[in-house]
């Protein structure tokens, strides 16, 4: 299976955190979740069969996205769902995952993210 990153990309206050939280809630209702941080923003992994999914809703500059992406790679996540800005350091961090064998797909809203998730 090709490793995959689905990044919800957009400017601030566009609902990226809410979209990722919705994806988390849908998946966690069916599959075992390991929640690392949950206080509005979420950092978690979910096991779906043999597939490990990492979810990070913080995608702002200066946020924990950089540490979370590193942790998800270390954990061997097959799919990473995260937020990032439209350009800059957070987008560069997502693109950097291609160096670790991940295909990078950018989405801009919950409907598109869900459509991408259902492909895998």
Write a compact overview of the structure shown:
By secondary structure, the chain is an alpha/beta fold. The protein has helices at residues 16-28, 65-75, 89-96, 110-118, and strands spanning 3-9, 33-39, 41-48, 51-56, 79-84, 102-107.
Question: How would you describe this structure to a colleague?
Answer:
It is a single chain. The N and C termini lie close together (9 Å). The chain is of the alpha/beta class and 120 residues long. Helices cover 34% and strands 33% of the residues. The longest helix is centred in the N-terminal third of the chain and has 13 residues, at 16-28. It contains 4 helices and 6 strands, in the order βαβββαβαβα. A 6-stranded mixed sheet has the order 2-3-4-5-1-6, sandwiched between helices. The protein has a single domain (3-118), classed as Rossmann fold, CATH 3.40.50.
CATH domain topology: Rossmann fold
List segments where confidence is low: pLDDT < 50 over at least 5 consecutive residues: none
Q: Kindly state the mean pLDDT as a whole number?
A: 87
**Rough outline:** globular
Straight-line N-to-C gap? 9 Å
Q: Please state how the strands of the largest beta sheet are arranged side by side.
A: 2-3-4-5-1-6
Number of helices: 4
Helix content: 25-40%
Largest sheet: 6 strands, mixed
Features:
alpha/beta; six-stranded mixed β-sheet; 33% strand; 6 strands; Rossmann fold; 120 residues
């Amino acid at each position: 299976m090709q490793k995959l990153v689905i990044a919800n990309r957009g400017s601030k206050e566009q609902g990226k955190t809410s979209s990722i939280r919705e994806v988390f809630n849908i998946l966690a209702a069916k599959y075992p979740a390991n929640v690392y941080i949950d206080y509005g923003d979420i950092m978690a992994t979910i096991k779906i069969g043999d597939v490990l999914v990492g979810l990070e809703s913080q995608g702002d500059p200066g946020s924990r996205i950089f540490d979370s992406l590193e942790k998800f790679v270390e954990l061997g996540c097959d799919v990473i769902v995260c937020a990032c800005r439209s350009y800059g350091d957070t987008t560069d961090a997502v693109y950097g995952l291609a160096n670790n064998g991940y295909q990078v797909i950018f989405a801009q809203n919950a409907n598109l993210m869900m459509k991408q998730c259902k492909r895998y």
